[in-house]
Amino acid sequence: MAAPLCGSSFAQTARRQCLHHLKQHLSIWPWRCQRPTYCASAQSRAGSASDIKHSAELIDVNPVRGTRDFAPEEYRIRRWLFDEFEAVSRLFGFEQFETPMLESEDLFVRKAGEEITQQLYNFEDKGQRRVALRPELTPSLARLILRKGKALPMPVKWFTVGQCWRYERTTRGRRREHFQWNMDVVGVPGVEAEVELLTAIAMLLQRLGLGPADVAIKVSSRKVLQALLAKYQVPEASFGPVCIVVDKLDKLPAAQVREELGQLQVSPEAIDGILRLTELTSLEEVTALLGSDNEALAELSRLFELAEASGISEFLEFDPSIVRGLAYYTGIVFEGQDRGQQFRALFGGGRYDGLLGTFGGEAQPCAGFGFGDCVILELLQDRGLVPAMPRQVDDFVVAMDASLHGAASSVAQRLRAHGRTVDLALESRKMKWVFKQSERVGAKRLVLVAPDEWAQGKVRVKDLAAREEKDVSLDDLTA
Ligand code: HAM
Known about the structure:
Number of strands: 16
Largest sheet: 8 strands, mixed
Distance between the termini: 19 Å
Helix content: 25-40%
Number of domains: 3
Bound molecules: histidyl-adenosine monophosphate
Number of helices: 19
Strand content: 15-25%
CATH architecture of the largest domain: 2-Layer Sandwich
Oligomer: single chain
Mean pLDDT: 90
């Protein structure tokens, strides 16, 4: 039986180290080492790092404006959120795909006056090709669907999580890069597709701890506005640009929206009609305005009926002012908003049956959404719903001296082969550092490879939560 870590044989192994300090850490005394020898050696290490001479002026260490670094502590939170996005998508039977962040500029050039096309990060590459960093994922999805062609069985249910770039004015919740979770259904003309997408969003929100009291999903259909415009004989070609102006209602004063609609040759009566429509709150009121023989109303009624069955209706709110700022939507549109309206939109989506056709391909019914990573994290942080995510490994493996590093490395590999996460100490350091470091890496166990124990085919294992230690044979270590 090997001596305990704080006992004499271990102390001999570590005799060049600060035994006094080691003993404190093996016990539960919250007592700090005052020994000058240990502290002096720690300081000399720190000193040697700062002694490195700087040969040039320090660069600007901040990321480019509107972009973010993800240091490990931030990356853990991002990974957690993306794991939730991916888990929900898989629960709904969606398959993951990915397309390049750099696309041909043509993919994003549309003439309807959308903000997104004015915010392109575009440039000419070294081969004189016009390219752009994608501002959204939907055109790339459409490109991939078209590339796959007829061989692709319908319906397609795909999801992706990817970084998007928009040269936006950076404000709370809006950055120049963000990640979006997208789920899209291609090949299904009915609102069953939209309801499935909305159900996935509701499930994600609930998994994150947000319920209908926190988030409203505002739903409408562009066909409602289309029917109204037809009533006022507004030319069909103006429909896309009119939607983009109406989408600005919550950002611009009504007078400016009126002026912009006027510039699109929309008559003052039609403008009054549009503004009245956006103030309605129920399907009954819209029926009274447009009559009951209306495709948009039939679709919306069916959507709310199906939403009831899938248990998400408490999240949903009919709101005819929702039209969305992207030109390609053709039917149902929706947007997620925190109920307190403190934050920007959490997500948005809808039906875009015409997009594939505008790229020269065979038209296909499509519906989907984009759910950004910025606003949801702001909301979760505000509600205290981001879980603590400390660094964690199963084992911290340490060689007691440099000659045992190979042995420690073999122990680490053995543990990893059994699925345990292992941080292997790459240098022999004082025991004070070993204990501090095992805390810093969030180890559950400290595995010490010491000469006497190693000679007997054993290692010393300390369960850091239970504060129990014992010698364990290599076979038992992974049993
Ligand atoms: P979008 O409304 O432009 O739609 O963006 C979707 C979501 O992405 C927004 O609700 C927001 O969460 C996030 N987002 C957009 N821009 C920024 C930004 N500058 N900073 C931070 N977050 C942002 C689309 O992109 C559509 N392609 C969604 C879609 C997919 N429709 C059908 N399928």
